[in-house]
Design goal:
Length: 237
């Protein structure tokens, strides 16, 4: 669905109330586990490869339930194999590109990229530099537009990096707002307590769409509505 854009300067980080509601994830996880037992009514894949990239301070263990569900739907689901996501590093950028190209060559087919939160930023950049190897990009609550400061990730960054100052790159952020030249599906929740939902939207373009779901930020990776969107788009591809 399309949302009316507002000036980036008017976008603020989610309220303390929404941040506190992130505890919903402890209820969302068992619901997803129950839903993934049957997967009734969801379209099936035919062995398409996909890679799931975790959010900040998360790793492949966090994305395992989603990858298992997608595998049960007939897709070949891979993790990112880079441990805990502490932000982009030159060596990680290089290894991700190599992994993408190897999967593309191995399957002889483009790879779908699913990026949760910061992982979605990585996925879009992988697709920007190697569009021939990417079938589609899905972002789940990823800060890809609007105000780069309208989130609570900076506090997490300081915690993970021992109080180092957060270095902003407004020009780089502006460039990254342009979607990569592949189909892009941005999945977002208006009750996201970590990233302002307005910042999770793709700019309007022939190859982009924005899909709203009901979820916490942490729960986007274990949400049955998200799984439904992924399954439908992947089967259509």
């Amino acid at each position: 669905m399309n949302e009316t854009p507002i000036p980036p300067s008017a976008i603020r980080a989610p309220s303390p109330a929404l941040l506190a509601m992130e505890l919903r994830v402890f209820a969302e996880l068992p619901r997803f586990a129950w839903r993934s037992l049957s997967l009734h009514g969801l379209p099936r894949g035919t062995g398409q490869p996909l890679m799931v990239l975790p959010g900040f301070l998360a790793g492949d263990f966090a994305t395992l339930p989603l990858r298992r569900a997608l595998a049960r739907l007939g897709h070949v689901a891979y993790g990112w194999h880079e441990g805990v996501n502490l932000g982009m590093r030159p060596q990680i950028k290089q290894r991700l590109a190599q992994r993408l190209l190897k999967l593309h060559a191995h399957h002889r087919a483009p790879v779908a990229l699913i990026g949760w939160s910061l992982g979605g930023v990585f996925a879009r950049e992988m697709a920007r530099h190697h569009p021939q190897a990417v079938r589609r990009v899905f972002t789940l609550g990823s800060p890809i537009s609007g105000n780069p400061d309208a989130n609570h990730m900076q506090a997490l960054f300081r915690l993970a990096n021992r109080g180092q100052p957060v270095k902003t790159d407004p020009e780089g952020f502006r460039r990254r707002q342009t979607p990569p030249p592949v189909p892009c599906t941005a999945i977002y929740s208006k009750s996201d307590g970590i990233v302002a939902w307005q910042c999770c939207l793709e700019n309007p373009a022939p190859n982009t769409e924005n899909v709203e779901v009901r979820s916490s930020h942490f729960g986007l990776i274990v949400n049955e509505q998200v799984l439904g969107v992924l399954a439908e788009r992947l089967a259509a591809d």
